[in-house]
Design a protein that fits this description.
The complex is a heterodimer.
Chain A (H helix, E strand, L loop, with lengths): L1 E10 L2 E11 L4 E5 L6 H8 L7 E6 L2 E2 L5 H6 L1 E5 L10 H5 L1 H5 L4 H14 L4 H4 L9 H13 L5 E5 L7 H18 L2 E6 L2 H7 L2 E6 L2 E6 L1 H6 L4 H7 L4 H8 L7 E2 L8 E2 L4 H11 L3 E5 L5 E6 H4 L2
Parallel strand pairs in A: 3-8, 3-9, 6-7, 7-8, 12-13
Antiparallel strand pairs in A: 1-2, 1-4, 4-5, 9-10, 11-14, 13-14
Chain B lengths: L1 H7 L2 H14 L5 H7 L13 H30 L8 H13 L2 H12 L3 H25 L3 H9 L4 H32 L11 H9 L3 H32 L2
Helix pairs in contact in B: 2-11, 4-7, 4-9, 5-7, 6-7, 7-9, 8-9, 9-11, 10-11
Classes of the chains: A alpha/beta, B mainly alpha.
Chain lengths: 307, 247
């Protein structure tokens, strides 16, 4: 839980963050979305006090962040950045263990936790533990970077364009993993990006920012369907709006329960976009849908997508 | 076996053996030198023993370089922290002045102040070493990737932990390169300390020049050169090891 109240930050005459207020509830994945220079990264870095505020109040878990020693605060908050910043002279294990060791965890517990995280990111623990960062691919490095941010089981995770520097295929995989981890751990996450597709895919709530202010705060669907002004409408883009809408709506909302169809079933929490894609590839207008346990529970039809 | 053959192929071993042999048993060259320089007597420098001269010079260089390294790295750490950033230009200017003063001039100025002996040489070597060490240390510390520093701070490492666990290990190879250059130069420069009463391998060189005894000059020069080469090779090895462990 983060509460930001009327926070302002200026560099000289330039107001980078202008009396910004934002509350992120527990378990939310809040994306700060905007073009470069809109103040999104500055806002993020004021949460863990890498940048001091000029005025206003920020609370994490109900506690005023300026009343906690900065180092203690940061050890409670995971932090992952675009340049990753793995320590090149430390092994993967030592990198991931950074914060647990700062918190003086017992070494056996540290080892277990590192193994657990490597497995979560599908990096085989025996072979990856003792590797050095330069022996990893860009995607693997970023996985280790996010694992390191999660290592001490922080109450909050801050991510500053973490996937902006990797290739599109790796980015897609990393986004899927983050979505999975967010669902599995229910961590509160603040995620900065300039990529609208990434925001629509990951966010439970999006804050669109411009010139240090939040223009609109809402769910991805809200923002696509009801942009508050032309700036937001331009930013989310007219082009392919329909496809973007399909990508944020879930099959679950349009399911025809009880009906049956042939073929490999789609997951209930898949997007309508994925349903359209599967129908196009399989030359069909009806596909079965299964729940989390894999039971076929209904059908999605082509007409349902545009209802 | 592989280790053994690598050791045999290492120049450190051969240069080291040659240096040690000449240092301890220069007298085996007496027949050769007597033939080359007929009429010069004695043909081997004998006012001090070579090992004693070497140890004295080694001590001078070691103390001066160690002091310059401590001061230089400390200054570099200071000017690369937020609190010291404003002093960067000043520190750089001071170190440059130290480097620009010829060591011979420093000796001339230092002798009236601290007297003859080891001290003036020590001061000259210290000042002369400060610039390469400080500059390399600043470059090394500034070369630590911004992302690594940001991550370290963002994860909650304290300023000390960032310095000791991240900045210094990553800057280590570059800092060491500066120390290596300055030590190698200091070994050569230290010899002129013999003109103001410091005992170094330069003593036979200057005695030889004054008394017109060329063999003394040769003996001192060869030993100083081997000393410098050996030191440089050892530092090169240390640097390689440090780079490997820095990943």
């Amino acid at each position: 839980m983060i509460e930001i109240e009327r926070v302002t930050k200026s560099y000289g005459d330039r107001r980078v963050v202008d009396s910004l207020s934002l509350t992120v509830g527990p378990g939310e994945l809040c994306v700060l979305l905007g073009s470069s220079g809109c103040g999104k990264s500055t806002t993020l870095k004021m949460i863990n006090r890498l940048i001091p505020t000029d005025s206003g109040l920020i609370r994490v878990g109900g506690e005023d962040v300026t009343l906690v020693p900065a180092e203690a605060l940061r050890r409670r908050i995971g932090y992952a950045i675009q340049s990753i910043g793995l320590f090149p002279h430390w092994t993967v294990e030592d990198n991931i263990a950074t914060v647990p060791r700062l918190l003086k965890w017992r070494e056996a517990r540290v080892r277990d936790r590192v193994g657990e995280l490597l497995e979560l990111f599908r990096l085989d623990p025996p072979s990856y533990r003792s590797k050095y960062p330069h022996q990893l691919s860009g995607g693997e490095q970023q996985r280790v970077g996010v694992a390191r941010a999660l290592a001490a089981d922080p109450e909050l995770l801050l991510m500053d364009e973490p996937f902006a520097a990797v290739d599109p295929i790796t980015r897609d995989a990393l986004q899927a993993e983050l979505a999975h981890i967010h669902r599995a751990t229910e961590k509160t996450i603040v995620f900065v990006t300039h990529d609208i597709e990434e925001a629509l895919r990951l966010a439970t709530v999006i804050a669109i920012m411009d010139r240090g202010r939040i223009l609109q705060l809402g769910t991805p669907l809200d923002i696509l369907e009801h942009p508050v002004n032309d700036f937001v409408r331009d930013f989310v883009g007219h082009q392919g709006l329909g496809l973007k809408l399909l990508s944020v709506r879930r099959i679950a909302d349009r399911l025809r329960r009880g009906e049956t169809a042939v073929g490999e079933p789609l997951a209930l929490d898949a997007s309508l976009g994925e349903a359209l894609s599967a129908m196009t590839v399989r030359h069909t207008d009806r596909l079965p849908v299964s729940d989390a346990e894999g039971r076929k529970i209904g059908v999605i039809a082509l007409g349902d997508l545009v209802r | 076996m592989i280790r053994g053959s690598r050791l045999l192929g290492s120049p450190v071993l051969w240069v080291g053996l040659l240096f040690a042999a000449l240092l301890l048993r220069m007298d085996v060259l007496r027949p050769v030198l007597q033939r080359a320089f007929p009429g010069v007597e004695p043909v081997i420098y004998n006012r001090d023993s070579f090992p004693a001269l070497f140890l004295s010079q080694f001590g001078l260089v070691a103390v001066a370089s160690l002091a310059a390294s401590l001061v230089g790295v400390t200054l570099a750490v200071f000017v690369t922290r937020p609190a010291g950033r404003d002093f960067r230009a000043m520190v750089n200017a001071l170190a440059t002045v130290g480097q620009a003063f010829p060591p011979a001039a420093v000796l001339a100025i230092a002798v009236p102040m601290v007297g003859f002996g080891a001290w003036p040489t020590m001061i000259a070597l210290f000042l002369y070493s400060l610039l390469p060490i400080t500059e390399n240390a600043v470059a090394g510390l500034e070369g630590v990737p911004q992302g690594v520093r940001e991550a370290a701070e963002g994860m909650g490492l304290s300023a000390w932990q960032r310095l000791l666990d991240v900045d210094l290990p990553l800057a280590g190879p570059v800092i060491l390169a500066g120390v290596r250059v300055s030590v190698t130069i200091a070994i050569g420069t230290a010899t002129i300390g013999s003109t103001v009463g410091a005992l170094t391998l330069g003593t036979p060189i200057f005695d030889g020049l004054v008394a017109n005894k060329l063999p003394f000059v040769l003996e001192g020069a060869v030993l100083v050169a081997l000393f410098a080469i050996l030191t440089d090779l050892l530092f090169a090895g240390l640097e390689r090891w440090l780079r490997r462990s820095a990943g």
